[in-house]
């Protein structure tokens, strides 16, 4: 009998997996917010949490399985929930700020996080972007959450009991709570953060209940204090009780917060208004469907559709809003840079080292109206801090390398976004490009060396110097592009064009790879191209050698031409996944993720090499791009809790999948081209802000037919291996003829090649 059942299950599974989804009417139904949550510090399969939020919302919520302060707040393999946390965490490595939690309990009052924790099962859990529900077994309680941008509704279903409680934990490092029994209300604030905040930082919260309190208590540290209505200490919270007479009786909570004040937190509750839980839930579902429906796909398996929309969901979370609406409906924000309340937009929680590559280009194509606000927020960040943030959470953080705000600003303007202060942003780019900042990761560490020598030396105690040099050279290219567009002085334009070629200083002809160079002009010794870190950032020379986004032809020339270039590209996949971890003194998770992927030295789980697959197009062998793009999508992405092959990183790794599934990718942000790959679906449509549509047809696409035989653009034969932004933005119909054998004659003439600075006329 068991064998028969197993066979039936197998055939049902294979039927569902092989089922073709022709069209999608409600894309949010295909989103799995648990993708990437089966992670731990030693191995990331996304390092995500199930964000209960609206697109780019200021406040997210998440079930909390980890202890207070644990960056891994939710792990799929955990079996207990300690609370439901308001979170602003961009990644476990950055950790959190503006956080507090809510936890329903029954029976004896248990307020400590380990004591109140309850067993739960994924079988009794529903996780969507707009709605979360779980059964807390130890308390016989069902908890439901549905969010707005700055507020949320909780609906808690208790058993028949006279001992129903809700614990509000304001966390440690300085917190405050005040219970207002006559108003069925609790207010408070949390100051717990992981850095990047001014001294006056607080997250002010307010909770309104629809039932009167039968008992009240506060706690400070480990001490419960009956009838305590107001507490301020390192770690405080509140416990309110309810007398409930029937099974399934519900307590509803309206909750919101503000970085400005309690009064503003009350204003933020207006996002809920008089809507009940189900109305708010339906509204949230509609918001997500509207955002996700900007991109339609069809003609793929159910798992491909689930993977696509789960990735698209992740691209619409960060950077998050950090602004609010005052009593007059004006946009205001608490500045995470100077602690003042100021007018205008502000966004935060993104690292440009990751997201400049394709997350921001994706927003510029599909959601430009949102990125216009983000660009205004960047201008405000510069005015308030004197620098553009390279990693903001919520203010300046000293993480990663590069000066990639240049790419984020330039790409937006080059793609036609307007309505913000571009002159202030250009001033900010020049300032950041020529000065070391107050933190190592702000401005350019080693700026004086870079300006004088054309590179950051290996032997001057500036870590990851080769990575910095390569990224600075590309960032100079982005400034060069923007300077031309803004008609800046010719001398200024030429300066940044010249500096764009600085990548050449680090090319070692002996190995055909990028290599750290000492101040005296000699390359570092000894050199191990498999050594992670040291001269590079979270990678090795085999990963970073390709970081010449803007001049692939120039890199190819250094390597000796197309044949040598392709051989080098091929080697990435054929080399064994060996590594030298001596710089770190341990196997960091990025190394392990490359090692176990069985793709040689190709480390898709980290960002530096993600564009590399598309470089075959520059060397007359685009079919290899087509092969490896499909291979990477098939093998490295799944709609499951272990669905990523490394950190998801604020939408970047997700945006790679979304772009690649559509059939093109922005190898060089700040120019108006997208390099062709191969579409995953038989049909896709992008609904543009201007009312036009990009329609992508590949009717004979299949698992075997992964190669592009021919392309037609608006019915006309199209041989180029790239699309122009101007072609796409005006609305276009692209027809891909797919085949199971590569067409080695298409896209191989000089006129078919994508942009390279060395080929610029």
From TrEMBL:
A Pfam family that the UniProt record links to this protein: Glyco_hydro_92
Domain Glycosyl hydrolase family 92 N-terminal residues, every copy: 30-258
A single Gene Ontology CC term: cytosol
Gene3D superfamilies the record matches: 2.70.98.10, alpha-1,2-mannosidase, alpha-1,2-mannosidases domains, GH92 mannosidase domain
GO biological process, one term: glycoprotein catabolic process
One GO molecular-function entry: carbohydrate binding
Cofactor: Ca(2+)
Quaternary context: Monomer.
Protein name (database record): Alpha-1,2-mannosidase, putative
Species whose genome carries this gene: Olivibacter domesticus
